[in-house]
Amino acid sequence: MTHPVLRAQDLRRTYGTRVALRGVSFDVRRGERVALLGASGSGKSTLIRCLSGLETTDPGAGRIEVFGQALQEGGRHSPRIRALRRRIGVIFQQFNLVGRLGVMSNVLTGLAADTPLWRGLLGRYTLAQRALALDALDTIGLAPQAFQRASTLSGGQQQRAAIARVLVQGAELVLADEPVASLDPQSTRRVMDQLAALNRDAGLTLIVSLHQVSLARRYCHRVLALRDGELVYDGPSAALTPSFLQQLYGTAAEELLHDDHDFAAPAAEAPPLALAA
Ligand SMILES: Nc1ncnc2c1ncn2[C@@H]1O[C@H](COP(=O)(O)OP(=O)(O)OP(=O)(O)O)[C@@H](O)[C@H]1O
């Protein structure tokens, strides 16, 4: 029997008196492209931090399995977490690049787990590792910027460098936390196109949190929708019409429908990635 790539069971996370996740359960199969949708404060980032192993759920609550193995259970990380996290790529809204380092050096940090610390600190990567990073930058259309400082890139370019880092890491499951929240519509389209292409061409399983329903409908077949930490919908993105959103969220639906005109066009398939053989 094949395991789901990700299995979340009864996840709860409380901060003081604030309940950020309330019994969230779902499975994701290999190769799926899933949007995690919800208004501000609905628990998207908390869920992604838990799924990526950056945070634990409440003591005694819930279990997260990745690749058929426990990542955390009952609020405790599994002893295998390091090995499992190597297979999970995380992309953040704020890119998490080191601005004073070159783009290539940033992308090479995706290899941190496979590189002795001293090599990484001194930037002494092997030729093969550098070639891998250049390939990833080429795939993502950033080869010409490889030796620029990361801080000189536009927001969209920085996010694409973060995608290249995940490629170099060799991640099988990518968790992207509002990767386009701070980008203009053109950069948003480019970054989303590339995430979609990674999923389609490189076979990565993708979970991407968004708070624009139009993006979720355009790029993902399946949506998990959160409201106040609760999973209120798990189904096809095509069903998320404005009236259904109104039923799910009431007046808060407005937040998810904002800027809808920018991405309202029917889903276009992303251009293929120039994946290295
Ligand atoms: N470290 C923390 N300490 C205290 N409360 C937190 C913490 N992280 C999240 N919360 C609270 O948990 C709830 C869910 O927050 P979360 O950031 O997961 O939501 P979100 O859907 O990602 O929101 P946004 O779209 O604004 O990023 C919010 O009420 C938030 O204030």
Written description of the protein model:
The chain is an alpha/beta fold. It has a domain at 30-41 and 83-259: 3-Layer(aba) Sandwich (Rossmann fold), CATH 3.40.50. The protein has helices spanning 44-51, 81-85, 103-108, 117-122, 127-139, 155-169, 185-202, 213-219, 242-249, 253-257; strands spanning 6-15, 18-28, 33-37, 63-66, 69-73, 76-77, 88-91, 173-177, 205-210, 222-227, 230-236. The strands form 2 sheets. A 6-stranded mixed beta sheet has the order 7-8-9-3-10-11, sandwiched between helices. It has a 5-stranded antiparallel beta sheet with strand order 2-1-4-5-6. A hairpin with a 2-residue loop joins β1 (6-15) and β2. α5 packs across α6 (155-169) and α6 packs parallel to α7. The chain starts with 5 loop residues before the first strand and ends in a 20-residue tail after the last helix. Adenosine-5'-triphosphate binds next to β2 and α1. Keywords: ATP-binding, Cell membrane, Hydrolase, Membrane, Nucleotide-binding, Translocase, Transport. GO terms for molecular function: ABC-type phosphonate transporter activity; ATP binding; ATP hydrolysis activity. This is Phosphonate ABC transporter ATP-binding protein. Residues 6-253 form the ABC transporter domain. One of its GO terms (cellular component) is membrane.
